[in-house]
Amino acid sequence: MERIMFRAKIHRATVTQADLDYVGSVTIDQDLLDAADILVNEKVDIWNITNGNRLHTYALSGPRGSGVIGINGAAAHLMRPGDMVIIAAFGNFTEEEARVLEPKVVLVDARNRLLELEPA
């Protein structure tokens, strides 16, 4: 049996842009994607700390060092620039893998610059 487990998150990031006319997804600074081990086009959950909205989408790469967290498409109705969010990724793991899994937690400052990486 496989279990769906939390494996990584970018914690308390700040939304920098919301583009209603974009096709969809969330644009994330590539440095943050790398730190969290989230791939381009990977499914992510976004939990809005500011207003409580939650959604599923997929990750796109933004310029390195830009701090961009861009909410695209219809999701821009639910999240606005300045909102604080958690971006989380999950994966399927065997029982053995799940028991030793150490999720990555990427902490950022108010400008979405990497502060530290710590296990969950």
Give the total of beta strands: 9
Strand order of the largest sheet: 2-6-3-5-4-7-1-8-9
**Structure class:** mainly beta
CATH architecture: Beta Barrel
CATH class value: Mainly Beta
Terminal CA distance reads 23 Å
Total of DSSP H or I helical runs spanning 4+ residues: 2
- The total number of structural domains is 1
Q: Which value, in Å, is the CA radius of gyration?
A: 14 Å
- Looking at the structure, what is the overall shape? globular
**How are helices and strands ordered from N to C?**
EEEHEEEEHEE
Cofactor: pyruvate
Subcellular location: Cytoplasm
Active site: 25 (schiff-base intermediate with substrate), 58 (proton donor)
Keywords: Autocatalytic cleavage, Cytoplasm, Decarboxylase, Lyase, Pantothenate biosynthesis, Pyruvate, Schiff base, Zymogen
